[in-house]
Amino acid sequence: MEHIQTLFLLCPFVFFTTVTSEGNVCSRPELGGNIEMDGIQRYFNPGAELTLSCKQGYTPESGPRKIVCGASGKWTTTQLLCTPTRCPYPESLQYGDLNYEDTVYQSTINYTCYAGYILTGASSTVCQANGTWSAPVPVCRPVTCGLAPIPEFGVIIYDRKIRGNTADYGVRVTYKCLPPHALFGNEKAECTASGTWTKTPECREVTCRPPENIDHGYMSNSDQRDYDFMETIRYGCEGDYVLEGSMQIVCQKDGKWSEKPSCKAPCSVGIQRGRILYKEQKLWIKDLQPNRVLHGQIVSLYCMDKARKCGYAVTTQCMNGNLEIPECFEEPSVADYQSQPSSLPSEINQC
Question: Is 9 in a helix, a strand, or coil?
Fold first, then answer.
C-alpha cells in the first residue's frame, strides 16, 4: 500500500518532465471566429498537430484546418473562415406580415396576421444549426361570423359563395325588402374582425296616399287607394301641352310620392307681319298654321342693322305659353309687307 502511495505522489513530477524535456511547449490555442478544437489538453509539444473545426451553426469557407506547434512554442496561423449557416429565405405569409433582419443561424422571424385573421401555428421561428427553420410557416385564417341575420320581410344576397353556416371576415351582404316594405338602415352589412356583423337594417311597411292629377294632364291610374312602396304612376299631357319632368312618379320610403311633372303650355308668335325661322325653315308668319310653338321650342325673328344695312336673326324661346318678341324687331308696315317684301330684314343680306 505504501509503494502505491509513493508512486502516486511522484506522478505529477513525471508528467511535467515528460512535457518539458523536449524544449518549449505550446499552450492550448485561443481560437476566435467561431473556430473550435476537440479535447481538453492544455499543453502540447513542438510538432504536435491540431485539427480545427467550426462551431455548431457555422460552415468552413476557406483555409487549412490544421495548426502545428512550433519549436518556439508558437502555433502556426490558420486562414480558416467560419461563416454562419444560412437558412432558406422564408415563404411569404398570405394575409399577414413577417418581420426579420437576416436568415443566418440563430436569426428569428416573427409572424403577424392582418386584422380579421387569426394565426394558426408558431408565431416565430429560429434558424437552426443544420440550416433549417425550427417551425414551418404558419397560416392566417380569417375570422368567421355566423350567417348574417335576416330582417323580417327581408332577403339577403351574399357577395360570394358561402359554405356551411359560417362566413369569413370581409364577406358582405346586400339587403332587400319584400314589397310593400322599405329598407331602413344600411343596405349592406359586413362580417367584421370581431366576428360579428355590422348593424342589420329593418324592413317597414310603407304606403302612399293616392296622388293628385296635374293641370292639363292625365294619370295612368286614378284609383283612390293607398299605393305600396315603389309602386309607380305615369303622367301625360293633353293636346299641345308638353310634359316637363319625369313622366313617372314613385311611392318613396318616406310615404310620399316623388316630384310630379307639369304640363307646359304652347305659345303663339305675337306678330302679324314678318318672316320667322322655325325648325330650320324660313316661314312667313301667315304660313305658320296654326300659329303655335310648343314649350321649349326656339323661333328666330329678324332685326335690321341700320348702320350696316343688313339683317340678322335673334332667337327667342317658348316658355310655358310665353314667347317674348326681341326688342330689336320692328314689324313692317302693311305697305312694305305687301309691296316691298324684299326690303325686309329677313330678305336682305345677312350681317
Answer: helix
- Which of helix, strand or coil describes residue 331? coil
Collect all residues with Cβ–Cβ distance below 8 Å to 222 and sequence separation of at least 6: 210, 213
Complete domains list, the chain, with CATH = 2-84 (2.10.70.10), 96-142 (2.10.70.10), 147-205 (2.10.70.10), 207-264 (2.10.70.10), 275-343 (2.10.70.10)
| Cβ-contact 332, 345 below 8 angstroms | no
The pLDDT assigned to 23 comes to: 58
Question: What's the alpha-carbon Rg for the chain, to the nearest Å?
Answer: 51
Cα separation, 177 vs 204, in Å, equals 8
Distance CA 311, CA 111 (A): 85
Distance CA 318, CA 274 (A): 18
Q: All 3 cell numbers of residue 349?
A: 343680306
Residue with cell 467560419: 82
Q: What is the pTM of this model?
A: 0.58
**Peptide bond between residue 46 and the one before it cis (omega within 30 degrees of 0):** no
Residues 6+ apart with CB under 8 A from 129: 56, 57, 85, 105
> Are 351 and 314 spatial neighbours (Cβ–Cβ below 8 Å)?
no
* Residue-level pLDDT at 6: 31
What contacts 292, CB < 8 A, 6 or more positions away?
240, 266, 267, 268
Smallest CA-to-CA distance from 66 within 20, 91, 29 is with: 29
DSSP 55: P
The low-confidence residues of the chain, meaning pLDDT below 70, are 1-23
Identity of residue 287: D
104-141 confidence digits (pLDDT tens): 999 999 999 999 999 999 999 999 999 999 999 999 99
| 12 vs 9: CA distance, rounded Å | 7
Q: Round to whole Å and give the CA distance between 73 and 83.
A: 29
Q: So what's the pLDDT on residue 339? A: 87
What's the CA gap between 239 and 247, in Å, rounded? Answer: 16
